[in-house]
Design a protein that fits this description.
mainly alpha; 8 helices; globular
C-alpha cells in the first residue's frame, strides 16, 4: 500500500506550529506523538506500525491548513482520530484477505500463479533497485535490513553515519521507497500486458 504524496515542508512546519508555538517544544511533542501513535498501532496488532504512523502524519499534513483554523482542543487528538481510522481500514483489509482464505481454488492454479507473480515481482524489484543507483540502493537495503529492536538500533546508527537524525533518514527513505514502488508497479503492469 503506497502513499501517494510526500509531506511538503510547509505542512510539516504548520503541524509543529499547531502542536506548540515554541519550535523546540513542538519538536519534542511531535516525537512523543510519533512514539504514542506507534504504540497504539502495536497494541492494535497492526502489521506495520511505523508505516501507519507515517501515514497518519501524511494524512494530517494534507488537511492541517484547513483543520487547524477551526479545531478546538489538543491537536494531538486529531492525529489519534486519524490513527483510529487507519486501524479500522487495516481491520477491514484483514477481514477481506481472511475471507479469501475460505475459498478453495484448484491447487495447481494457485501454485503456478503465485510462483509467476513472485518471480515477476522479484525481477521487477531487481531491475528497479538497479535503476536507483548505488547510494540509494545501499541506503534502502540497509534501512530495511534488520527486525525488531535491532532494526531501531541500526537505523539510529545509520542516521549517525549519514550525519543526520532518524526523522530526516525516514523521510529520505520514504521518498526512495515511493520511487521504488512506482517503478515496480509500472514494471509489473508492463509484464502483465505482455502476457
Amino acid at each position: 500500500m503506497a502513499r501517494d504524496s510526500e509531506i511538503p515542508p510547509e505542512s510539516f512546519d504548520e503541524i509543529l506550529a499547531w502542536l506548540n508555538p515554541d519550535r523546540d517544544l513542538a519538536a519534542s511533542m511531535y516525537l512523543q506523538l510519533r512514539a504514542d501513535l506507534a504504540k497504539i498501532f502495536v497494541y492494535n496488532h497492526c502489521s506495520d506500525p511505523e508505516w501507519l504512523t507515517d501515514e497518519t502524519f501524511d494524512r494530517g499534513a494534507k488537511k492541517v491548513h484547513e483543520v487547524r483554523q477551526d479545531y478546538q482542543g489538543d491537536p494531538r487528538h486529531y492525529f489519534y482520530a486519524i490513527a483510529r481510522n487507519l486501524i479500522k481500514e487495516e481491520s477491514k483489509k484483514i477481514k477481506r484477505h481472511a475471507s479469501l482464505d475460505d475459498i478453495d481454488p484448484p491447487a495447481n492454479t494457485i501454485n503456478e500463479t503465485e510462483q509467476e507473480t513472485a518471480e515477476m515481482r522479484e525481477e521487477c524489484l531487481d531491475a528497479c533497485l538497479k535503476k536507483l543507483g548505488t547510494k540509494k540502493k545501499d541506503l534502502i537495503l540497509n534501512y530495511y535490513a534488520r527486525e525488531k529492536q535491532a532494526k531501531i538500533d541500526h537505523r539510529v546508527e545509520l542516521a549517525t553515519q549519514l550525519g543526520t537524525n532518524v526523522e530526516n533518514l525516514r523521510v529520505k527513505v520514504f521518498r526512495i521507497r515511493n520511487t521504488l514502488v512506482e517503478c515496480i508497479e509500472r514494471c509489473i503492469d508492463r509484464k502483465a500486458q505482455r502476457k
